[in-house]
Amino acid sequence: GQQVMQIPQYQHVQEGEDFTTYCNSSTTLSNIQWYKQRPGGHPVFLIQLVKSGEVKKQKRLTFQFGEAKKNSSLHITATQTTDVGTYFCAGDNYGQNFVFGPGTRLSVLP
Amino acid sequence: DSGVTQTPKHLITATGQRVTLRCSPRSGDLSVYWYQQSLDQGLQFLIQYYNGEERAKGNILERFSAQQFPDLHSELNLSSLELGDSALYFCASSVASLGSGRYEQYFGPGTRLTVT
Fold it and tell me: Do A33 and B104 touch (CB under 8 A)?
């Protein structure tokens, strides 16, 4: 079945450093979504990428969708303590299934 | 506050029992999704309904079932509970359905189920 992997599993950064998490699907996706979950909270939608090679920016966050629509990345520039949480990618398999990656837990040291 | 409500917040029950979790989607949202989050399994998609009809199925056990009612609220029924079913169960809603193009899911606060 469809699998979605994410690396790294954990990332510890100093405040101000950059952070990147990578997401890879075993199958081609119709779209990919990114969510953030703070400790003790629920997942919060960040963005959806639909087109091959799509790049979207939200302030310090940059999202990319690979040309083959099987991988994606999230890059945060100059991390802040408010960026702490677990970042999940989730792949939509053309409406058949919706698979979350295991997430990357980010901690930011002040 | 996402606008999605889930009840109850916490549930403690014994093995072999049956429970029902309830979800009310955001006003105007037609899709409801159910997820299970446990420490060792991450966030698992269980099932999705769109306007009362089942649309997509993930890793949902046969002991689990769900439905979406005409008023669009949804219930997740878990039966013959096992210790391994202890987890956080999230409901999410969206305007459109999986595979339909552009949509975003709004998650509720979750129901924490503990099976003893």
Answer: yes
CA distance B101 to A46: 16
Tell me the C-alpha distance between B20 and B9, whole Å: 12
Q: What is the mean pLDDT of residues B25-47?
A: 91
pLDDT digits (tens, 9 = 90+) for A37-77: 999 899 999 999 999 999 999 999 999 999 999 999 999 99
Nearest by CB: A103 against B2, B42, B44: B42
Give Cβ neighbours of residue A17 (< 8 Å, ≥ 6 apart): A78, A79
Predicted confidence band of residue B101 (pLDDT cuts 50, 70, 90): low
Distance (Å) of CA A20 to CA A58, A78, A79, B32, B94: 14, 11, 10, 31, 28
Q: H/E/C letters for each residue in A61-101? A: EEEEECCCCCEEEEEECCCCHHHCEEEEEEEECCCCCEEEC
**pLDDT tens-digit series, residues B54-84:** 998 888 999 999 999 999 999 999 999 999 9
Closest residue, chain B, to A89 (C-alpha)? B43
Contact residues of B toward A, CB < 8 A: 2, 33, 35, 42-45, 48, 55-58, 90, 92, 97-110
Strands B87-94 and B5-7: unpaired
